[in-house]
Amino acid sequence: MDAPTDGRRPAVIIDDVHVEYKVLATGKRASADDSARKLMQRRRKTRTVHALKGVSFTAYEGDSVGVIGSNGSGKSTLMRAIVGLTPTSQGSIYASSRPSMLGVGAALIRDLSGERNVVLGGLALGLTLDEIDAKFDEIVDFAGIRDFIELPMRTYSSGMTARLKFAIATAREHDILIVDEALAVGDKTFRKRSEARIRAIRDNAGTVFLVSHSMQSIRDTCNRVVWINKGDLMMDGDPDEVIEAYEESMR
Predict the structure, then answer these.
(1) To pair with 46 at 20 to 30 A between CA atoms, which of 10, 56, 161, 238?
(2) In angstroms, rounded to a whole number, what is the distance separating the alpha carbons of residues 124 and 116?
């Protein structure tokens, strides 16, 4: 995609990024301990997985970038590299501020109540107790768990848990937010609220990456789409054009 002509600044620059890692032939990822047991491993081969292959693009302030591709295409690897959780083997990633990643696997403490998790989650985001108190009702109502907020989270359904995670994580402003499949949970009403919140973050000059298998969510939320296939960047551009090409390739 060409640089915007409206003066927006780059938020994330991904420059010729490669990610490679070694896995054992059994499927177990190789570790430092394996080298200490060479005799045990002589009959077990390793192979190199090239998860990302020279991916380059720039995301700008106010962009909402949909990231699509089949399972194993490298989408989540790319997002983890942007956040800094996965090191690049080659190339560089530059960000104007620290990216935040929201996934349905975000940690909450099951034995504590929803109320306590809201407090702890807010503190982890850098909010003060006064700020958490001011946002508490909004978080609870957004997640739709008012009647269950005092119960331990182990009693919550997976959908309730995921809604609360999303509500906590988006309670503060983000300059760069990565949302990985979080909109796949909940009913249609919650998905619409979630999409509206992502658009609000984008409209406040934030930059959002949305990884999703829901092409409708991508269309409703994103102003551009990046298609990754087997580690290669296939297309980057208008959502309808990229999604049409992607769906055609799947037929």
Answers:
(1) 56
(2) 12
